[in-house]
């Protein structure tokens, strides 16, 4: 069911009614939403580690973390959460092009960095497991966690952020409401 919203023209012309189709972006914003969930889950894991949580899947986990380890993990959580917020903000309708462009640029940069970090890690760790590159003594099982869990998770995040960046540059339907205009 369509609703109508009155919008006044900045040139003083008569108000016009434009259809509003829901409050979300539908599938258009799916990559943004998935990137937000990816980033928040990853940030939550860093907070968990910062306070001594252990999953058994990372060699640096400790039940009694040093202050530097706590700060590093909380900083990583802020960065990852910030990436998720950028993905969410990119779903909003911004009046200024510089804001829209800045958000899209941040998505592109973070997507490329995350994807490349995951790809290089995946290749490097796989080469260690294959015996082509030397690995640390007694640390071989950790490389399996990286190849099967951590590196693919980085690649997934990079792909989601890049998909969100691509979608941020696509035109939207003229009557679609995206949660209201901002600035």
Q: For the terminal residues, how far apart are their CA atoms?
A: 29 Å
Spatial order of the strands forming the largest sheet: 1-2
Which geometry do the CA atoms define? globular
DSSP strand tally: 4
Secondary-structure-based class equals mainly alpha
Q: What percent of the residues sit in helical stretches (DSSP H or I)?
A: 55-70%
Radius of gyration: 21 Å
Residue ranges: pLDDT <50 for 5 or more in a row? 1-6, 17-23, 173-183
**Average residue-wise pLDDT:** 82
What profile does the largest beta sheet have?
A: 2 strands, antiparallel
Question: Beta fraction of the residues?
Answer: 5-15%
Please trace the helix and strand order, writing H or E for each element. EEHHEHHE
Please count the helical segments.
4
Number of domains: 1
Task: Record keyword descriptors for this entry.
about 180 residues; mainly alpha; two-stranded antiparallel ribbon; 4 helices; single chain
What this model shows, in words?
This protein is mostly helical and 183 residues long. The protein has one domain. Helices cover 58% and strands 8% of the residues. The protein is built from four helices and four strands. The strands form two sheets. Strands 1-2 form a two-stranded antiparallel ribbon. The longest helix is centred in the middle third of the chain and has 33 residues, at 97-129. The two termini are 29 Å apart. Mean pLDDT is 82; it is low at 1-6, 17-23 and 173-183.
